[in-house]
Amino acid sequence: MEQLLLLIFLPLAGAIITAFAGKSAKMVSTIISVASLVLALFIACNFIPNASTQFEANLPWIADLGIRFHAGIDGISMLVVLLTNLLIPIIILSSYKHDYKNLAAFYALILFMQTGLLLVFTAMDAFLFYIGWEAALIPIYFICAFWGGKDRIRINMKFFVYTIGGSLFMLMGIIYLYLQNPAHNFDIQAFYALNLDSAQQGWIFWAFFIAFAIKMPIFPFHTWQPDTYTAAPTQGTMLLSGIMLKMGIYGVIRWLLPIVPTGVHDWSSLAMILSIIGIVYASLIAFTQKDAKRLVAYSSIAHVGLIAAGIFASFNLGNNGVQGMQGAMVQMLSHGINVVGLFFVLDIIFSRVKTNKIEELGGIAKLAPQLAITFLIIVLGTVALPGTNGFIGEFLLLMGVYNYSIWAAAIAGLTIIFGAVYMLRMYQNVMLGKTNELTITFTDIQGTEKLVLYIICALIIIFGVYPKPLLHLTEASVQHLLEQVNQKLTSVK
Amino acid sequence: MNIIITISITAFIVLYAGLFKAKKALLPLTVVGLLTALGFTIGAWNSNAIHFGMMQTDNFALAFSGICIVGTLLIFLLTQNYFHAKSDNVAEYFTLILFALAGMIMMVSYKNMAMLFVGLEIMSVSLYILAGIRKRDFASNEASLKYFLMGAFSTGFLLFGITLIYGATGSFDLDKIQAYLVDNSKAISPIFYPGVILMMIGLCFKVGAAPFHFWTPDVYEGSPTLITTFMSTVVKTAGFAAFLRLFAGAFGPLHEFWVQPLIVIVCLTLFIGNVTALFQKNFKRMLAYSSISHAGYLLFSLIVLSANSENNVLVYAAAYTFASIIAFAVLILVKQKTGSDSFESFNGLGKKNPLVALSLTVAMLSLAGIPLTGGFIGKYLMFLNVMGDYQMLLVAFAILNALVGFYYYFKVIVAVWFKDGADIELVTPTQYKLVLLVSVAITLILGIYPAIILNLI
């Protein structure tokens, strides 16, 4: 319990210290985030990979409203907690070359957001989950709107109202569940045990699904994403794409599937169709992008669409869905690492030549061989080459989709393979070819850039070659979850 | 009873102190008087005493008295350098505010409708004068006159309503009226119903709920900002307490009858308040319209009467009051420096004045209803209450309105942090700092650990 509380509130305490740290904010926030990572690794080492919830903290909070501070870690949480605490120090390190104004506030907000994210990923109380959900949104709004690029105010307003609108309807769903719960509390187990009819489950499905779909984002709720990713400072984009969108996926797995299985059952084909439309649509648009950052943003929509499709397909496969669901878990981690890597490389390029336009670049590989190699590894991880971390997740996901529907798998799979074409073409146009006037002065990566990219590449290869620890970590929990869902589903029928 | 006496005596002492030109003593005297009154409020907790059958200091009354007194105290602290620049008769203004407060204490603790009327009038008459204290200012005069005419008009409705109810029940006493409704539930006199509606209209005028809200923006804009602060926070809270005492208490048994017009009023208030606030270019006017929308959320608690309705209003009113005090305090500071209260004058405030800007941000987040602030808990309780009756569409409507609210509250945040402006450096007197810190602390505590206030009543 103490470890978990420390894990959650260390970044918050760090945020307060950082806010007053002035010039040494960079160092203080790095130390805090690395300490959080060490703590998360310590927890992961002591984590027993079975289906139980561990390190549970269950404290009274607002007793009159049935709200408790109830958090805990099971296999599913463990993975995303690791992802969060792994990426935050990487993201902080990646900002070292930047000269942001108001540094202290910048790092304080990142650490504050980390607490919000960790609350989301560990909450066992729906109200706490909601609080974490919003507590993660406020800092990222400020990060993107304060340090962002052109037109940041309008774009971030859209992003903010979009996401908070979705989450308010989720709050309505949570209140409804609370009222239906005879014990009048927000406990996740009590919510799991609720017996709602299919009409109730139907609208609660939508109340939750829209909130999650906006976060991920799934077509047609994605319109905020490319603009926001492009206008945000690189660290904001990393936070959004690397960690924050996992909130949506995690929400689906943790809250949507087990609480309203009948609702999911009734609507999952539609949700799958939306996800697959999203994959195709985003890939087609990615093809035509001239800006590398936007290209990566759209490719991210495609990859997340595959994760969503895999989850809904696995859900419909009953207890046979474990593999697909496991794929989703692994892919959450891989996508987080890869997309952060991609955005970092683009940031490095931008910091040197002040553009991310694909056609204006070229020939960088000759001048910056180390960047070329690390970039290549990250691209290969993104396009899911066997031996990289992207492969295992996408393979399992596609298998899940295939078992559900061959057609869906064919469309989704071909598109993802197709995706390799535009990623590699981007790589080719940016790194290879002739050096032009703009790129002639390009210098190779140094210092923290090198450190960050090497870490990312190492992770891509390690998890690609030896994904077993990850799969092992989540397997029991995923299995348990699916059993729970199917039991509930059959008892209703 | 002690509370009213203390406040009234303080008012007289302050008036005499002004007569003897003891300007420096005014604020300390007032603060001591208000703290004593606050002490009496806390001391009377759980006593539930009835005073001459006219007032009942139950916990409801005491809790709202407490908020009103603390709110007034903070507003008095904001008078530093404020009235002195405007006029020589500072003592009179202090006295008038104190009298208004005494009226409000009656409004939150009446047991007899005569006391409601007396309290309302004591408060209103003081406010008519306060709205017009800038004698040579056209807007201030307009505000005063408009407020007076509208106030007199609405008092007419209220009195007529009281008369009809007296005619039906033969009593002004709230308990007797309620007993009448319970005993004669099958044969309520037909003149009782118009009485209820007329009183509702009268009170809606006072709290500025649509469609009886037309006076609010002009009056709020025209009055001196400090008086606007007083009117839109403390006065509004007292008005709602009076509303609640009557409708949740005495008229409770007739809930099914008056809830239909109330729902219409709530929806109109939310919609008009929010949508109009969206188009304002002036910060003060935006706050005026947003106060209309908050009246809508507060009235939400009356749609479904439950054991928690009263406490919900208390939480919401507290959250709203302290957030608004911050907003107005910052507005006063900005206006003193720039002479304007448009949104543009807030541009780039965050660069040179982090404390003020941060307080304003917290206030805006709370007014918008973002988690971890008091405003969220307030809104949450309101939604929870109405959801309890499964009025989903109503809640969905309120949520859509809350979304509109985000736009205009964030406009302030955007101006403060993200826009470039004239890099003004505000002069923040210590008392202002104190008020900002106290209000921010209360707002955050209400948001993070509301358990302290949830079971108060």
From TrEMBL, chain A:
Topology term for the membrane: Multi-pass membrane protein
GO cellular component terms attached to this protein's record: endomembrane system; membrane
Membrane-spanning residues: 6-22, 29-49, 69-92, 104-121, 127-147, 159-179, 203-224, 236-257, 269-288, 295-317, 329-350, 371-392, 404-424, 451-467
Coiled coil: none
Predominant place of localization: membrane
Keywords: Membrane, Transmembrane, Transmembrane helix
Gene Ontology biological-process entries: ATP synthesis coupled electron transport; electron transport coupled proton transport
Superkingdom of origin organism: Bacteria
Cell compartments where the protein resides: Endomembrane system; Membrane
GO MF: NADH dehydrogenase (ubiquinone) activity; NADH dehydrogenase activity; ubiquinone binding
Residues annotated as domain NADH:quinone oxidoreductase/Mrp antiporter transmembrane: 123-415
Similarity comment: family membership: Belongs to the complex I subunit 4 family.
Protein name, entry field: NADH dehydrogenase subunit M
Species this protein is from: Pedobacter psychrotolerans
Source taxonomy: Bacteria, Pseudomonadati, Bacteroidota, Sphingobacteriia, Sphingobacteriales
TrEMBL record, chain B:
Upper classification of the organism: Bacteria, Pseudomonadati, Bacteroidota, Sphingobacteriia, Sphingobacteriales
Cellular-component GO terms for this entry: endomembrane system; plasma membrane
Principal location: membrane
Protein family: Belongs to the complex I subunit 2 family.
Subunit structure: NDH-1 is composed of 14 different subunits. Subunits NuoA, H, J, K, L, M, N constitute the membrane sector of the complex.
Protein name: NADH-quinone oxidoreductase subunit N
Record Pfam families: Proton_antipo_M (PF00361)
Keyword annotations: Cell membrane, Membrane, NAD, Quinone, Translocase, Transmembrane, Transmembrane helix, Transport
Source organism: Pedobacter psychrotolerans
BP terms from Gene Ontology: ATP synthesis coupled electron transport
HAMAP family reported for this sequence: NDH1_NuoN_1 (MF_00445)
